[in-house]
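Anyone have tokens for histidine kinase? Sequence:
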Amino acid sequence: MSCWHRYSIRCRLAVVAGLVTGLLCTTMAVFIVVMSRQAAVDFRTDQLFSGAVSLGAQLRHRVPDLTEIGPGQAIQVFDPAGTMVAATRDLAGKPPMTNLRPDPDAYATTTSCDTRVFPDRCMIVLAYPFHREGGVWQLNTAVPDVPWYVGPELIIPLATGCVLLVAAAAAGSYRIVGKTLQPVDAIGGNLAQITASGDLRHRVPVPKYRDELRGLAETANQALERAQMAVDQQLRFASDASHDLRSPLTAMRIRIEEALIDPRQADWQRTADALLDSVERMQALIGDLLQEARLDAGVTGRHEPIDLTELVAGELERRLAKTDLRHRLTPGVMVDGSRIELSRLLNNLLDNAERHADSAVTVTLTLDGEVVTLEVSDDGEGIAPEHREVIFQRFTRLEASRARDPGGTGLGLPIARQIAQSHGGTLTAQDSPRGARFVLRLPERGTSRPPSG
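Reply: yep, here.
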């Protein structure tokens, strides 16, 4: 598999590093070439001027024979009338190399390319006037222009250095990114192994340096931890649910089989009553399981302004209480929530309180600042401090609860707590002089501050 496909990020970053380095190197090389060429042009121009001054000093006394000057030098001498009086061998009989006519006390330079005098070439041309008897003469001299690349002694080292620098930047970036991504490769490999095996007990390795990759590994491990907890919770939920569903089903099967052994002697009314009890128990259990599933999925009812005092008073009035039901309700207590879910929460607490009360259940509703407090207490045996959190676990039923209500599901209190949490509140079991006391705290309507437990 090619580098590009196997380590695409590594290769892309190496290419980007190479391109950026190449761009910077090219910019610097262009700057160096431009500055070097300008310096070379200035140097050649200065040489032209020095040679023109020296030759002009000779021309003031006599006009030498320029045809004997070696190749590579281009010189033309014109008298005041513009007639060529002397020139190097290559320029004899040719037109002037430039049309420049500088002031008598100054000189001028220009660059000429592909002219009649210098075809297919670029030349630096200098026009130098000098004084002689009879007027102002002009000396034109030229040398080849400096190439854009100045010369091989400059461009070759620059190009070689740029290539080496780009290669070093790309290779260094590839290696550094590779070292940096090694923990990512390890994390990816472990996650692939976990995905293939389905074993959520494995964890990804955590890098030793405290950087972003360490945070990624820790976050991945936290996600795996939560996933394992969720799977374990679902397994326990399925196991407990199947166990609780099996009990009424078994009872129903036994009743039906007993009746079918001798249909004529069977007490069908009694059998029907027993089957109806089992069906009602299954119906309650299935309803609780569905409510748990909805709460686990975050599906809640539509929240709206609710007069909690009116809701609690209505539920207490409609309830067929098995014990003395007392209440102290502060009027006008408002909350934001789902009426159906809050009613379910209250009835779950009342069912639990009536199940364990000896003679009375007390409901209290108060408003303290921005916190709404609903208390449901009974005068029963109470709950031991070590069991006050256990009872909120699903399908947990203490011995006293099993004795008082063998058909209970063990889901009433967990559902009540989940409803409280979905409304931004808390539900806890707290100290009481006698019996059990459950305290629900909710934020008052219009506030979002979660109440302290």
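The mean pLDDT is 84.
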